[in-house]
Write a structure and sequence with these properties.
12% strand, 6-stranded mixed beta sheet, 284 residues, 8 strands, two-stranded parallel sheet
Length: 284
């Protein structure tokens, strides 16, 4: 994701320097024409764009010596495109502001393909003035940006979105499995669902693109979705909200860890559900 964002911004005319803890990743980006440095050699910049696996990694980059709190020049912006813990984001945003820097959480949807062609969806949490300042960069990276509130708000809405996506993968798989068991072709079932109120991005995009095709190369892993669901559950618990269906979705995504590894494409969650529909043949 981060590498494709860097390439997109470079193609749009921005001066981009990339970094990664893995030398192989840096070499791959350098081979594509982007200047790269080791993490301990980060240059001073107007904007620092983070695309990292977890909030712990974001905290490390910002706080750990030398860290952006000490390295970044006053008035520069830290933009976190990761899917992070909102509570951690709000804590870091306060520290960033105290250091004379600006903060924007901007978690993304659209996967590596969206990052490569500049069509990401971005959920923005931060101040209007910060968004206005980095607007040219955001416009180069995205097809749509939605400002949802102050620091941390983007990550709250991103967790809500990923919870729904995870739930839709389960419910759509069960609905298609029911149709298959009754003798309806999965493609026909999806066409019907997508003409009605039950449709979702999962039924319109994920199932034809990655599930029925069995390509499973979306670029987003089961481990990352499991992490996001745990973050969503923690956020709900901190707010005192009854977990309800959220807990069921979390449990279902974690129940088959031996068969569905963290490194597997997240759309694979539908595979065992659909497989059960074909056991014993379809009914007519």
């Amino acid at each position: 994701m981060g590498g494709n964002m860097a390439l997109t911004l470079k193609a749009a005319g921005f001066d981009v320097t990339g970094s990664d803890v893995f030398e192989q990743a840096r070499a791959r980006l350098a081979a594509q024409g982007v200047a790269v440095v080791a993490p301990d050699k980060l240059p001073q910049s107007d904007v620092y764009l983070l695309s990292l696996p977890t909030s712990a990694h974001v905290r490390e980059v910002i706080e750990q010596s030398p860290g952006l709190l000490n390295l970044a020049p006053k008035g520069s912006v830290i933009v976190d495109t990761s899917t992070s813990d909102p509570a951690v984001s709000r804590e870091l945003a306060k520290k960033v502001a105290a250091a004379g820097l600006l903060w924007l959480d901007a978690p993304v949807s659209g996967g590596p393909k969206g990052a490569a062609n500049g069509t990401l969806g971005m959920l923005l949490g931060g101040e209007d003035t910060t968004i206005e300042w980095v607007a040219p960069m955001l416009e180069a990276m995205s097809a749509k940006c939605t400002h949802v509130g102050g620091p941390g708000s983007g990550h709250v809405v991103k967790l809500a979105n990923n919870y729904l996506c995870a739930a839709h993968l389960l419910t759509t798989a069960e609905a298609v499995a029911m149709a298959v068991k009754a003798g309806v072709a999965p493609e026909a079932c999806l066409a019907g669902i997508n003409s009605g109120s039950g449709r979702s991005a999962v039924s319109e995009v994920n199932f034809p693109e990655w599930v029925l095709s069995e390509r499973f190369d979306s670029g987003f892993t089961t481990g990352l979705m499991r992490k996001d669901l745990r973050l969503a559950r923690e956020a709900a618990q901190q707010l005192g909200i009854p977990l309800g269906l959220l807990q069921t979705v979390v449990d279902m995504w974690h129940s088959d860890a031996e068969q569905l590894g963290d490194s597997d494409d997240f759309n694979h969650i539908a595979t065992p559900i659909l497989a059960r529909a074909t056991q014993g043949g379809a009914s007519a």
